[in-house]
Write a structure and sequence with these properties.
- By secondary structure, this protein is mostly helical.
- Helix content is about 75%, strand content about 0%.
- It has helices spanning about 1-10, 10-45, 50-85, 90-105, 115-130, 130-140, 145-175, 180-200.
Length: about 210
């Protein structure tokens, strides 16, 4: 009952941020699902999974994925200063666009080392994804409902994962013809949608919601 009532009375900013999360996380899942094989097939030009280039490609893809975590770690130190200067809404929107550009640009990589540049954008986005939505949300939640609302907010991370896990395999087979690179690029497009929602629909002047019994 408490969860149902909380959902019915969600603060406006939480509704918008939930939509941002809903489009952000599938972009990440599609990258995690298909990026390595896209690198093997489209950058290393492996012809099959038994081709030695396939192993080289997936290994190098894994290396660049590890690199974006390094970027995230380093960027996290400067992110608060950027957010203070630009505001959380604009900061998160720009960071999501960096991630989107990184994912979409994988299709234009001619030299494997360019993938580090792509993953730099993803690392910037990841640093913001882990912090900015929660920072923007915390200021508008009733103090006595923070735990409940944070739990509900995480639904919008889990739900896209379930949808992607159950439904995107069909899309890959019947629409994309198992084109892993196209899947990664769709992830980038979803991040662009999330960035636009964040920028145009979040009002940073929202006030804290009063506590309710």
């Amino acid at each position: 009952k408490e969860i149902t009532e909380a959902i019915a009375h969600m603060p406006k900013r939480m509704k918008v941020l939930s939509a941002v999360q809903f489009f952000t996380w599938p972009g990440l899942f599609l990258m995690w699902f298909y990026y390595n094989t896209a690198v093997a097939r489209n950058v290393f030009h492996a012809t099959s999974e038994t081709d030695p280039l396939y192993g080289e490609g997936t290994n190098f893809g894994g290396l660049t994925l590890a690199f974006y975590n390094v970027v995230t770690f380093l960027f996290a130190f400067v992110l608060p200063f950027i957010a203070k200067k630009l505001g959380r809404r604009l900061t998160h929107s720009v960071c999501l666009l960096c991630g989107a550009i990184g994912l979409i640009s994988v299709a234009f990589v001619e030299n494997k080392y360019m993938l580090y540049g792509c993953m730099t954008g993803v690392g910037i986005a990841w640093a913001s994804i882990l912090s900015m939505p929660y920072a923007m949300l915390s200021g508008v939640l009733p103090e006595n409902k923070v735990g409940v609302y944070m739990g509900i907010f995480n639904f919008f991370i889990v739900l896209p994962e379930i949808i992607a896990s159950l439904g995107f395999g069909w899309v890959m087979r019947n629409v994309l013809n198992n084109d892993r690179l196209a899947a990664v690029q769709i992830g980038g497009v979803l991040m662009i949608i999330a960035a636009l929602i964040c920028y145009f629909f979040i009002n940073e002047k929202d006030h804290v919601t009063p506590a309710t019994n």
